């Protein structure tokens, strides 16, 4: 096989929902590790990773209930805090790529993750999309919805869903 | 990345439904080409391909309507013809792997493809499963069912579905 242009793998990544755990969700970092181990392997120059983080505008609704908004600046500082959290997340993945030597890009969008991911697939046209999943049962899925299921159906590129390993399930399996 | 054991990719492959076209279906060979180009690339020693062909017992029902069965041997010759067709299919993929130098295994099972593929995933435990799909719309899918959709939901490993390229759709899109 001649090596042409690198295979462009888009990865949807998100923050952990666990309080005080300021990093990538368990399923995001699991999907990233899996992609490196099983797909990229030693062929560092053959792949490029494209990290997309979608921030949900209401994501911090509960945190914000105890906040007091007295001036327009209070909202600005909230926005910049959200932005900082998203950047911190992408920094984690970009740093890991840099350490390995694999080429990458990362960016943040706001909106409904499943819709935005499919929209960005259309725009960026990766070779395929990797998404992590909590691997919940059908009963749990009813309440939380799953981004991976939606993307598998609607994204205009092949999609591979990496389920969280059973031994990494947190105390509350809805957490990630 | 240190190279450990090869990544084992299972591929469900089937014959073309187009009369007089004795080879792999368009979607199977498309999924195979895609896997080589986008995943394996030049890293031949990093991967092993596992080809599973599931023969549907009734698959040749229509052909058999014009046949006359006069002795038990007639059934035996039919069975050996089916077997020969399945072997011919696997030979195509094994030959292509041999030409490239990528390690592979191939085997045939009888039954309902979606059930058998999921059962074999459980038994063989590949790192992931690749299945081709005709990429039919929801209306067409109602009538033909899709193996890829079932496997995405039920296989105990990550699944990547490779849709047939639009420019490869045969005259009747149900054909493959």
TrEMBL record, chains A, B:
Q: Which organism is it from?
A: Trapa incisa
Q: Name one GO molecular function term.
A: AMP binding
Q: Which residues form the UspA domain?
A: 30-163
Query: Per UniProt, what is one Pfam family of this protein?
Result: Usp
Q: Which SUPFAM superfamilies match?
A: Adenine nucleotide alpha hydrolases-like (SSF52402)
Its recorded name reads UspA domain-containing protein
Q: Which InterPro entries match?
A: At3g01520-like_plant (IPR044187), Rossmann-like_a/b/a_fold (IPR014729), Universal_stress_UspA (IPR006015), UspA (IPR006016)
Please name the taxonomic classification of the source: Eukaryota, Viridiplantae, Streptophyta, Embryophyta, Tracheophyta
């Amino acid at each position: 096989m001649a090596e042409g242009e690198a295979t462009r793998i888009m990865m949807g990544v998100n923050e952990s929902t666990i309080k005080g755990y300021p990093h990538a969700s368990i399923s995001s970092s699991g999907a990233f590790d899996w992609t490196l181990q099983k797909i990229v392997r030693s062929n560092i120059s053959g792949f490029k990773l494209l990290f997309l983080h979608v921030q949900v505008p209401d994501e911090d609704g509960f945190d914000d209930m105890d906040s007091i908004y007295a001036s327009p600046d209070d909202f600005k500082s909230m926005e910049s805090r959200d932005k900082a959290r998203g950047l911190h997340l992408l920094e984690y993945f970009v740093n890991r790529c840099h350490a390995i030597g694999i080429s990458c890009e990362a960016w943040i969008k706001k909106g409904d993750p499943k819709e935005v991911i499919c929209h960005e697939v259309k725009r960026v046209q990766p070779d395929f999309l990797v998404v992590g999943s909590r691997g919940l049962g059908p009963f749990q899925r009813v309440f939380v919805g799953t981004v991976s299921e939606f993307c598998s159906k609607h994204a205009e590129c092949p999609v591979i869903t990496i389920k969280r390993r059973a031994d990494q399930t947190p105390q509350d399996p809805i957490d990630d």
